[in-house]
From TrEMBL:
Keyword Nucleotide-binding assigned: yes
Lineage, broadest ranks: Eukaryota, Viridiplantae, Streptophyta, Embryophyta, Tracheophyta
EC number: 2.7.4.8
Protein family per UniProt: Belongs to the guanylate kinase family.
Species for this entry: Lupinus albus (White lupine)
Tagged with keyword Nucleotide-binding: yes
Protein name in UniProt: Guanylate kinase 1
Catalyses which reaction(s): GMP + ATP = GDP + ADP
Family matches, as SUPFAM superfamilies: Galactose oxidase, central domain (SSF50965), P-loop containing nucleoside triphosphate hydrolases (SSF52540)
Record Pfam families: Guanylate_kin
Length: 400
């Protein structure tokens, strides 16, 4: 997005109305919060994604924010509504799973990034209807059996869980496949991608770089599955500090001797690596047990018993069949709509066509139960449709 033209700056100095598409055919909306006006440019003019600039009205200056999260693709137009700490973007003429986005500018996650980076930060997240189950973060020392437990879970409930495929700079083991067990990558490339904001978390573990990309979590959510992350304690701490709401489980070995036996028994590490992993394990176990990161600690002594406990805490112990949940009904927002906001309800006034202005449909978007999901997802949207406004309010349809 290039520098904005002078007429736009004049408009912005005069405190533009929130959420309105500017009348110069540029697909830009402006949303003002205090001294800052967020100019969101969705133009479908060759730029691939919706871009953001901030106009600082107190200094009369443009600010180019650091943008995290996957950006929404550009579209034929959009509407913007200011919520407390984020801007709701409704893309016009987009597919149902691509029409609701949030630009976070003052969430806890954004403030944390701003502190770390010392720059203005905004974060994109995609709006998801309903209350999808929280992702599961599983941590524990190397060799404790995290991967074994996760494999058991995914084998028994294939349609329910999806694995977050991490990036790593370590070399693949014999049976490991790129893109399945890990995305094997190079240090310089991964460092660049971390700088570009592609990672939800990353850490140096046992001498190599590991990280969870935003995309790795999104792919699982897009498939309608509950995401499982197998990450070390540092990674779990970063995810805990982000606004991705997850369940955190720490897997503990019965003893250091058992851990050593398992690690050696697996036969995948050199002697030097085994010793390094065992040294690191002591600190990890101490942190896992004492820190406030984890919601549950499970001892993996007998594998079957530990697996049953894991299923129990995930509410799967008396699960008969892993039937997929019914998918939310889809709503397509028409190109031609107007918006109003009453408390936590966004009223989308849809006009089916220019000729049928009188037969309006109302869609109500309830944002009262938005849950953290950044970067990547903001869950908890709830749609209600009123089928025919012209006929009076004829009953509500739930769409979440
Ligand atoms: N309860 C158990 N009792 C005995 N052996 C076990 C138990 N759980 C797992 N194992 C074995 O321990 C070895 C290590 O398990 P696994 O690879 O799942 O560990 P991990 O925690 O995923 O390790 P890493 O963090 O290095 O990926 C495997 O050979 C596995 O079969
Ligand atoms: N912080 C992160 N830690 C990760 C990630 N993926 C894996 N891991 C952890 O690394 C160690 C070693 O794994 P290994 O496959 O080399 O044995 C283990 O504790 C994993 O949990 C990640 O994306 N981020």
């Amino acid at each position: 997005m290039g520098e904005a033209p002078a007429f736009l700056v004049d408009d912005l100095q005069n405190e533009p109305l929130n959420g309105f598409e500017l009348k110069n055919g540029t697909c830009k909306t402006t949303t003002t919060v205090g001294d800052k006006t967020y100019v969101i440019d969705g133009a479908d003019d060759g730029t691939l994604s919706i871009e953001v600039q901030i106009f600082d009205r107190s200094h009369g200056k443009w600010v180019h924010p650091t943008v995290h999260g996957v950006k929404p693709l550009s579209c034929k137009g959009h509407s913007a509504v200011l919520l407390k700490d984020r801007i709701l973007i409704l893309k016009k003429g987009s597919k149902p799973d691509d029409q609701i986005w949030f630009l976070e500018f003052d969430t806890q996650y954004v403030r944390q990034l701003q502190n770390n980076l010392g720059t203005e930060v905004v974060v994109w997240s995609k709006g998801v209807t309903g209350n999808a189950e929280k992702p599961i973060v599983i941590s524990g020392p190397s060799g404790v059996g995290k991967g074994t437990l996760i494999s058991m879970l995914m084998k028994e409930f294939p349609s329910m869980f999806g694995f977050s495929v991490s990036h790593t700079t370590r070399a693949p083991r014999n049976m490991e496949k790129d893109g399945v067990h890990y995305h094997f990558t190079e240090k310089s490339l991964m460092e660049k991608e971390i700088k570009d904001g592609k990672f939800l978390e990353f850490a140096s573990v046992h001498g190599n770089l590991y990280g969870t990309s935003v995309e790795a979590v999104e792919v699982v959510a897009d498939a309608g599955k509950r995401c499982i992350l197998d990450i070390d304690v540092q990674g779990a701490r970063s995810v805990r500090a982000s606004s991705l709401e997850a369940i955190f489980i720490f897997i503990c070995p019965p003893s250091m001797e058992d851990l050593e036996k398992r690690l050696r028994g697996r036969g995948t590490e050199t002697e030097e690596q085994v010793l390094k992993r065992l040294r690191n394990a002591e600190a990890e176990i101490e942190q896992g047990k004492s820190s406030k990161i984890f919601d549950f600690i499970l001892y993996n002594d007998n594998l079957e018993e530990c697996y049953e406990k894991l299923k129990k805490l995930l509410g799967l112990d008396d699960f008969v069949t892993a039937s997929p949940k019914s998918a939310p009904r889809e709503i397509i927002l028409p190109m031609n709509h107007s918006l109003s906001k009453i408390d936590d309800k966004i009223i989308i006034n849809c006009m089916s066509s220019e000729l049928e202005k009188e037969s309006k449909n109302l869609i109500m978007l309830d944002v009262s139960s938005l849950k953290g999901g950044a970067p990547g997802r903001t869950r908890g949207l709830d749609f209600q449709a009123v089928s025919s406004f012209s006929d009076g309010l004829t009953g509500m349809d739930q769409f979440s």
